From TrEMBL:
Residues 112-208 form the Aminoglycoside phosphotransferase domain. Belongs to the AIM9 family. It comes from the Eukaryota. Pfam families: APH (PF01636). It is found in: Mitochondrion. It comes from Ogataea polymorpha. This is Altered inheritance of mitochondria protein 9, mitochondrial. Keywords: Mitochondrion, Transit peptide. GO terms for cellular component: mitochondrion.
Amino acid sequence: MIARWIMPAARTAFRQRRFVSTPKEVFTELSDEQDPKRASIFEYSWGSWLENDIVEKEKRRTQFSIKGLNDLLAQVVKPFQGSVLLPVAHNVSVLKDNVDLVKTGFSHIKQISSIHEGKHHRIYKLQLDHQEDELVLRVPYKLDSEVYTDRRIKSEAATMDFLDKKLGLNVPRVLAYSSVAENPVGIPFMLMEFKKGELLMRNWNPLTPGPVNDEKSKTQLMSVISPIAEFNKRVTDFTFTHYGSLYFKEDGFEHIVDEPYVGETQESLKNRWVIGPTVEKAYYRNKDVEVAVIDKFVGPWTVEQPLKMVADLAQLELENLQKQGHDQAIPVYKKLAQVAEKLFDVESKTIPHMDALLAPRLALPDLDPMNVIIGDETWFIDFEGACIKPFLLTSYPKFVQYSGPKIFDLEADVEDFDKLDDVAKQQYEYMFYRTRNQFYWELALNETNKELLGVISPAVKLIKNAYLSALDAKTEKDYLYVENGLVELYTMWPHYESAAIVKGPNPLSFSEQELQAYETAFRDYQTELSSMPFAATGGWVPQDMFARLLEQKLLVEKNGSYTFDRDKLLQ
């Protein structure tokens, strides 16, 4: 049988628009796994790295067996017995309720298209014979440990099922998944239904001109923010019995909570899901410790200890740092562990609705216009890393997140704004736009769920800043952001203690020597980052820009890495 491959074209994903050249069609035999014409559809093509380009691209190579995938789909249409998950092939689970996504009469995959190369996954669209509906094959890059890949795929499948079956939200139905490479497809994967439409990102322009509450710009920005805020409201309205992450009970985790929530009356949903270890990425990223060590710190946690996940994150990172010998970061995480369970007075009356803010709610880390499809209806995708935690400890969606200086009015908040040069004006305008956009998210939160509005408090933001920095830490020097948050908290603690927001006397202490060393290291790190091109993207450069830089000989290659020719840049 012949399948048609739509080969990936040279392209660049911009935040506002996507430019794609015409893709190339190639025909291949389904059974010919060695066909060299297939190679390019597996290779990463959306960008290059300044450091270790070959290695980084190899991590993102997503070769799989098309024959194995075809055989798997043929198995799905056969009748099987099972309550929720059907074991139709080795290490593959199929959701019994969703087998209708493959129509009777299926014979072979007619066409495979590579439609997206994201940060963590490659997305393929499958056209099957004898049916109009299409499927999505999502393949994770080889960026994470096997234990994390296993847990996050299983948890994401269960989370999407929960959002669909329990909450009735518009998310694609999952057909099948495997969390390990030992399966007929030859790689971990998820198969789900394909939803037609345009990305909501096409409507998002964060630099839209207009002051706060300007009718035209506000309408444009809120047309993107509002549907995401409404979806988030529907998700966070539901509360659970513990903190952790969702899994199917049939996936058989050892450390689970059998009753993830109370009051289920629908028979088909009883005993369908459980709460198990969190899949929040920080608990697994760059960890050199054994799985048994990780398992001591990843939950599930009881509602009586809403801040223990903070302490456990700090303790896990200490175990990791001690094994790596990262002496500079160890004192910082010791301080975080020391303060973790005192960050908030959980019985505080100062912060309104503290009980509601501490209740276990589903947190979705990838709420973003890039993950919203606008068609006949609005559909939400990408729930990797979803976890159950207090809303008090969540961060804003990254597309509206801003922690810099707040500027609500350029003329009023910036002295002599009109007299500044163009570069300085642009910097302040950027701060204003980020402030305004985050304000609109907070406005949407106020409109959808006033009970959770306490998270917008400046005190709450400062108190949890060190913890959120620990969640985001990716490089060995990012501990400095954690330390920055701790120093700020150390300074403000007496005020928060008198306001009964934090718990008890200040547990943090910094000597003058420590503060001076921190200030020097933090300043040097900021200078280092500002002097490094593409530091914000980890050295990743969009492919069309990378090609231009090479053509202009502004980049110099050596041993698979690239450096800028600074003399040419300064010309």
